[in-house]
Write a structure and sequence with these properties.
This protein is mainly beta. It contains no helices and four strands. The protein has strands spanning about 5-10, 15-25, 30-40, 45-50. It is elongated. The structure holds zinc ion.
Length: about 70
């Protein structure tokens, strides 16, 4: 699993900082959030994430069918 950096908002530094020990949590209201600590100062931080982005059903443009050459 890739060690991706999650950016969160640090309320202490009032800046966007990388989140350490980030883990996804599900809140009571069913929303998802990432919880962790600020890698810079250690303040607890949380970042809301959109629950599984509904896969946009993108219908690919119908491929142009090559004209069938009538014999
Ligand atoms: Zn911080």
């Amino acid at each position: 699993m890739a060690d991706e950096v999650i950016m969160g908002y640090c309320v202490k530094e009032k800046a966007s900082k990388p989140m350490k020990d980030a883990k996804e949590v599900t809140l009571k209201n069913g929303k998802h959030a990432m919880q962790g600590v600020c890698a810079s100062c250690g303040t607890k931080m949380m970042k809301f994430v959109s629950a599984k982005k509904a896969a946009t059903t993108s219908t690919p443009p119908s491929a142009p069918t090559p004209p069938t050459v009538a014999a």
